[in-house]
Amino acid sequence: MRLTERRRAAAALALALLWAAPALASVLTYHNSNRRHGLYVVPGLTFAAAGTMHRDTRFAPALTGQIFAQPLYWRPREAGPGHVVVATEANIVYALDEATGAIEWQTALPPPVPHKKLPCGNIDPLGITGTPVIDPATARVYFDAQTLTADGPRHKIYALSLSDGAIVSGWPLDVQTAAAAKGTVLLHLVDAAGASRAGVAATSFTITGGNGPHFLDANMMAVTAATSSSKSGWVVFFDVPPGIAGLTQPGSAAVTIEMPAVPVAAGVVSIARARVGDGAPALPSNVSFSTQIVPIFAARGCVACHSGSGTGKDLGDLTLSGSANLIYKELVTEKPNTRVRLAAPETSLILTMPSREDPPDGHPNVTFTGPRDPDYLKLLVWIREGAKNN
Ligand code: HEC
């Protein structure tokens, strides 16, 4: 590190230190807020106190690499000492004693990327640029380090233990690989009139296999206070397996959410809008086998396996193609009281096989992601109404 850089780093740190006088709370992220507005009050930093502020020349740790990320301040216990956490473009992370500036631990990660290996930018080398984030509950610091690998420059997200700087097991995460395997779904919850619908409980819906819902607030910001601030009606699901996203709702949910078929592709964000209605879904009535039940099997992909030489016909001995009379025979008369059970409709194989169970049954896929799926409900009501060939 050149001397000027070192001075700059020291000055920045000394300032950070003054702001982080012992009575202060931790500064856990950029501008100390997920909103990044930088508006927060430091008790004790009054106009009068500012007049006597000076640089603490003893606080002069020798750090390697330019510092673009805001140094953070971590105070694990209210009464205990604090630590200044600094990450540099050399991909080195330091914890410094808040009083002396002495290095408590330092962790050197794999090398940063020289500017000549990058298509753009003006930071040389490029390592950790974004301000890390401290999770006080687990005493870990998370950050992104641009890293030179055998496959070229890669963004890697690290987690380090704040007690000794050790890399937490399971990390780093290669952003390119992680993003390539799964998709992201951005879902807009709306009411019947198409207006944003706020305040839907996180427990009332999930996308099968996905990580979410994560609520965005009125400004489309991701904030931790989920439902109460979900004024926009927008939610995000990460890590959604490629295919068609299925919405799951527990039977007890206070709302009914209708989500259209959302195609999910790896490494891509899919946007969809879903209608939220109050209460449980309205049940259909007078369900017709030929006009309402039979079309389900083609529309929901059952026929592909339950016809011809498909595995469902072969292993399950069930054909769901052909005339309504043939399908009726397969479901009701062929194997009485198994595929359709009048005495306990919910236990009918036609409902349980394509649904999710814990532990799962032998069926190769889950089509009905929950008891609120509209086709599931049609089948259920048709059985409750006597499974008629109507
Ligand atoms: C990917 C292929 C596939 C798809 C799609 C599929 N099934 Fe199946 N189904 C099977 C296989 C294989 C079996 C046999 C499973 C076993 O015996 O454990 C089976 C068994 C069944 C059975 C039990 C038959 C019996 O009497 O044992 C029912 C009922 C059933 N499927 C209904 C459906 C419905 C309804 C759909 C559409 C919503 C559907 N399946 C979609 C492959 C499929």
Task: Could you tell me the CATH topology label of the largest domain.
Answer: Thrombin, subunit H
Helix tally?
Answer: 9
> Sheet bearing the most strands, described?
5 strands, mixed
**How many E strands?**
17
Cα radius of gyration in angstroms: 29 Å
* Structural domain count: 3
What ligand molecules are bound, each kind once?
Answer: heme C
CATH class of the largest domain: Mainly Beta
Assembly state (oligomeric): single chain
SSE pattern, N- to C-terminal:
HHEEEEEEEEHEEEEEEEEEHHHHHH
Helix content: 10-25%
Largest sheet: spatial strand order: 11-12-9-17-15
Uncertain runs with pLDDT below 50, 5 residues or more? 6-22
- The mean pLDDT is 88
Structural class: alpha+beta
Please explain how this structure is put together.
It is a single chain. 19% of the residues lie in helices and 23% in strands. It has 390 residues and is α+β, with helices and mostly antiparallel strands. The protein has helices spanning 3-19, 47-51, 175-181, 289-299, 302-305, 311-316, 324-333, 349-352, 374-384, and strands at residues 72-74, 83-87, 92-97, 103-108, 133-135, 140-149, 152-161, 173-174, 183-190, 206-207, 211-215, 234-240, 243-245, 247-248, 255-258, 262-264, 269-278. The strands form five sheets. A five-stranded mixed β-sheet has the order 11-12-9-17-15. Strands 1-2-3-4 form a four-stranded antiparallel β-sheet, covered by helices on one side. Strands 5-6-7-8 form a four-stranded antiparallel β-sheet. It is built from nine helices and 17 strands. It folds into three domains: 3-178, Thrombin, subunit H (Beta Barrel), CATH 2.40.10; 182-278, Immunoglobulin-like; 289-384, no CATH class. Helix 4 runs antiparallel to helix 9. Heme C (HEC) binds at residues 300-302, 304-306, 311-312, 315-316, 318, 335, 338-339, 349-350, 353-354, 362-365, 367.
